Amino acid sequence: MNFEAIMDYLPQLLRGLETTLELTFASLFSGLALALLFTLILVLRFKPLEWLVKTQILLFTGTPLLVQIFLIYYGPTQFKGLQESFLWPLLSEPWFCALLALALNSAAYSTQLFKGAVDAVPVGDWEAALALGMSKRQALTRIILPHAIRRALPAYGNEMILVMKGTSLVSTITLMDLMGYADRLNARTYDTLTVFALAGLIYLIMTGIMTLIIRLMEKKALAFSQ
Amino acid sequence: MGIEVQGLSKAFGSTTVLKDISFFIPRGETTVLLGASGAGKSTLMRMLNLLETPDTGTMKIAGMNFSFSEKTDEKQLNKQASSLRRKVGMVFQQYNLWPHMTVLQNLIEAPIVQGTPKQDAIIRAKELLDRVGLTDKTNAWPSSLSGGQQQRVAIARALMLSPDVLLFDEPTAALDPAITNQVVEVIKELSQSGITQVVVTHEVEFARKIASRVIYLENGEIVEDGTADHFKNPQTEAFKAYLEH
Fold it and tell me: N or C terminus of chain A with fewer C-beta within 10 Å?
């Protein structure tokens, strides 16, 4: 490992940063939106949808993310019907498939987190809302969920970091993220230790920055309990 | 228009909690539901705003009529329950303030959900906080308040909807005795305003101070029902014994 090599590799690796960050935030955003919807469905017990959500959680928390990425990217090519459908331009796009896998994976874990947090909200919060004439749905969306999400924030912060690190798997479906560029650089230089140590360091710095941001959010969101 | 119930009964599984309860409470009275723990008084009060659904019986309260049987349609009842609860406020034993919202947010949330403009709700909230002596706590978190203060916020929150009836579940149970007198003052002041109040308690001294009527329950049945005179002249041995214990 020498300094010149590092200065040579660093700009090449950083070219992947954009894809890594884009995927992270797009997946987190869509995953969060889905998780909120799924949580509503589970808490309000919308019958047929409830089973779909439970199955989704079982499948996406019960199998490895890499398997999910492969199935979503390579799976649809096996079905002629899908190749001819309007979905094909999206499903043949690795970036979209990676987003879909990461978002669904994150949605499954986040739903479990949020549902657990909703269940842990004291029953008195519900009763007070109902006693003031709110419907169950109004109580949930206006009182219970905002309370539960604040409580779930520390755990959700971990989930955000897991998604960011999870994006490193998308290089296996041809995407050139940070890990994709590291792979390419390694294949060219065989300087394995330096290349992956550098990649690891960049991930570490991103984790550090995200942790700081999450801490700040926690401090604000949980001010009521301090 | 007061509160009139006929033949209310409720069982949880094979345990009967309330048996054939009937009473009438005239408008503007402060009625105390007295009894030992397990007598059914809290369940009875929670029926008055339909947090519990009776198995059988009829109920007239805040201008609405309800009739309960096995055929009661739960969806229909839930809809009516929401409009009933806007006229029948409730103050809980543990206050049940929403901890992640400030005092002001706790007060204005329900009116806003029901369509009151936010500015109007804030004005009313400030009036009520002034009335319960907590103007300086407008933007405080509930967890930073004492038990007595939290309870006054809970009362103000219930009053935001200008209810016809106000229910109190064991309002003094979680307070130390010195604060109890503040609750007595608030309840007395409210009774001047003509609101109908129903207070569940097992503390005789507290009951004597606030009640204009008393209903005494034992094992899910009404044993004694009448004006506050009954504290001096109990009509049944059971109530007499309860007052003396």
Answer: C
Report the alpha-carbon distance of residue B37 to residue B35 in Å, rounded. 7
Q: Which residues of B touch A138 (CB under 8 A)?
A: 113
Q: What is the pLDDT of residues B67-120, one digit of tens each?
A: 888 777 888 888 888 889 999 999 999 999 999 999 999 999 999 999 999 999
Q: What's residue A1's pLDDT?
A: 62
Q: Write out residues 52-91 of B within 8 Å (CB-CB) of A.
A: 78, 81-83, 85-86, 89-90
Which residues 98-137 in chain B show a CB within 8 A of chain A?
Answer: 98-101, 109-110, 113-114
Global pTM?
0.84
* Residue-wise DSSP of A116-159: HHHHHS-HHHHHHHHHTT--HHHHIIIIIHHHHHHHHHHHHHHH
Query: B197 - beta bridge partners?
Result: B30, B166
Spell out which residues of chain A touch residue B98, defining contact as CB-CB under 8 Å: 125, 128-129, 143, 147
Q: Does B228 touch chain A (CB under 8 A)?
A: no
Among B74, B80, B77, smallest CA distance to B62 is for: B80
In this structure, what token pair is assigned to residue A51? 């089973």
Residue B228 DSSP label: G
| Contact indicator for B165, B3 with CB cutoff of 8 Å | yes
For A155-183, what is each residue's pLDDT tens digit? 999 999 999 999 999 999 988 999 999 99
Helices assigned H by DSSP within chain B: 41-48, 74-87, 103-113, 118-131, 147-159, 177-192, 204-210, 237-244
pLDDT at B176: 83
User: How far does the CA of residue A145 sit from the closest CA of chain B (Å)?
Assistant: 11
Query: Is-contact B105 A143, C-beta < 8 A?
Result: no
B151 touches chain A (CB under 8 A): no
Average pLDDT over residues B127-142: 92
Pairing of β B221-227 and β B213-218: antiparallel
Return the closest-CA partner of residue B67 out of B22, B7, B26, B3.
Answer: B7
The beta-carbon neighbor of B96 closest among A124, A133, A146 is: A124
Supply the DSSP symbol for B136: G
Q: How is domain A3-225 classified at the CATH fold level? A: MetI-like fold (1.10.3720)
